[in-house]
């Protein structure tokens, strides 16, 4: 099972290589992670960078956690 984010407004989804727990964590703490990324630039895991980019691209949209086999 893979987990990812889906934007219900744009009907697009991504499935970074990580767990559902991690994705939920990032989504809940997006404001904190965004600040950390701004100051550190590197050092974030690639799934986190991908997730962050997606969440940034879809700010204000309806993002849900989804799964696929
Ligand atoms: Zn969107």
Number of strands: 3
What kind of oligomer do you see?
single chain
Please write the string of helix (H) and strand (E) elements.
Answer: EEHHHE
Largest sheet: 3 strands, antiparallel
- How large a portion of the residues is in β-strands, by DSSP E? 15-25%
User: From the helix content, strand content and strand pairing, which structural class follows?
Assistant: alpha+beta
Q: What molecules are bound to this protein?
A: zinc ion
- Give me the side-by-side strand order of the main sheet: 2-1-3
Name the helicity range. Answer: 40-55%
Q: What separation lies between the terminal Cα atoms?
A: 5 Å
Q: Averaged pLDDT, please?
A: 93
- Ranges where pLDDT stays below 50 over 5 or more residues in a row are none
Question: What number of structural domains do the residues give?
Answer: 1
Please describe what this structure looks like.
This protein has about 70 residues and is of the alpha+beta class. The chain has one domain (about 1-69). It is built from three helices and three strands, in the order ββαααβ. A three-stranded antiparallel β-sheet has the order 2-1-3, covered by helices on one side. The longest helix has 12 residues, at about 45-55. The radius of gyration is 11 Å and the shape is globular. It binds zinc ion (ZN). Zinc ion (ZN) binds near residues 7, 9, 10 and 58.
